[in-house]
Amino acid sequence: MSGPGYPGSPNHPPYPMPQPGGHSVAPYPVPMGGYGDPGQGPPVGFNMGYNPNQPVMYQPAPVGSGPGQEYAPGGISTAPVGAPAVVPVGVPPGLEYLTQIDQILIHQKVELLEAIFGFETNNEYEIKNSLGQKIYKAKEKNDCCTRNCCGSLRSFDMKIKDNMDREVIRLIRPYRCASCWCPCCLQELEVQAPPGTTIGYVKQDWHPFLPRFSIQGANKETVLKLEGPCFACNCCGDVNFELKGKDGEKPIGRISKQWSGLLKEVFTDTDNFGIQFPLDMDVKMKAVLMGACFLIDFMFFEKVGEANQRSTVFS
């Protein structure tokens, strides 16, 4: 099974097209019987009481510009006239749309200054749904010295905003070492939604050669596991990090670093990622998985100047 793909990219089908009845075709095959055993109870972090009969929450997009601009549902779909704005219980403000989707696409924007001169700039990303419609945007907040001296290990704050330019998620990454031989100082990331309220953590687990992470809740209890390949390098192919329950057995989703083409891979560090998870997963864990995707990007696929990107937990 391959992760969700970008239209026009090699080895990937186009975005799913809407079908009669409002359904769409997923851009990745689903294994027989789906993920997990339907006869078993849901693991921790799933089926958080979202009511499928509740009105759909629409991600708004700005119409017009300047002071006093109006906002309307745009780009995703149009809300029925008179539909009540019901917010599911326990969902952080601004994350309502995540309750409706089971995959996210993340595209890093090309920075001309970085591409031409190799001068490291703040990373910027567009976060899209499976139809390629932008639902969030993310931007790293950092200083010039930290970016160009600490490279991919740099600490940062990252703000994730919705289409109305409201900050809905904040990611905080402290500086940590790169070697797996120092298990007391492994990589971690804190996820806040809304900013100031911690909803989870991404923590690297020690392993001699495999990239492994724990997806944790606000109290640092492990909810999910994430495991990558021994050699995280996408040489003409995708790199998949399998998402599993905390027991680490059956896969229930994945984070995929997608092959962007030879020219982009060699001359830029702009990356495409796909995140796939169960539809009924706790929306807070979906947000934490977004944070995990950004951490993986910085750890294994971020290039600074002429320096080669990391490919294993050793380098």
Write the layout of secondary structure elements.
Blueprint: E1 60-63, E2 70-73, E3 103-108, H1 112-117, E4 124-128, E5 134-141, H2 144-150, E6 156-161, E7 167-173, E8 188-192, E9 198-205, E10 212-217, E11 222-227, E12 239-245, E13 251-258, H3 262-267, E14 272-276, H4 283-301
Antiparallel strand pairs: 1-2, 3-4, 3-14, 4-5, 5-6, 6-7, 7-8, 8-9, 9-10, 10-11, 11-12, 12-13, 13-14
Characteristics:
single chain; 315 residues; Tubby Protein, Chain A; two-stranded antiparallel ribbon; 14 strands; Phospholipid scramblase; Tubby-like_C; phospholipid scramblase activity
What do these coordinates show?
The chain is an alpha+beta fold. The chain has a domain at 102-301: Tubby Protein, Chain A. It is built from four helices and 14 strands. The protein has helices at residues 112-117, 144-150, 262-267, 283-301; strands at residues 60-63, 70-73, 103-108, 124-128, 134-141, 156-161, 167-173, 188-192, 198-205, 212-217, 222-227, 239-245, 251-258, 272-276. Mean pLDDT is 73; it is low at 12-44 and 63-84.
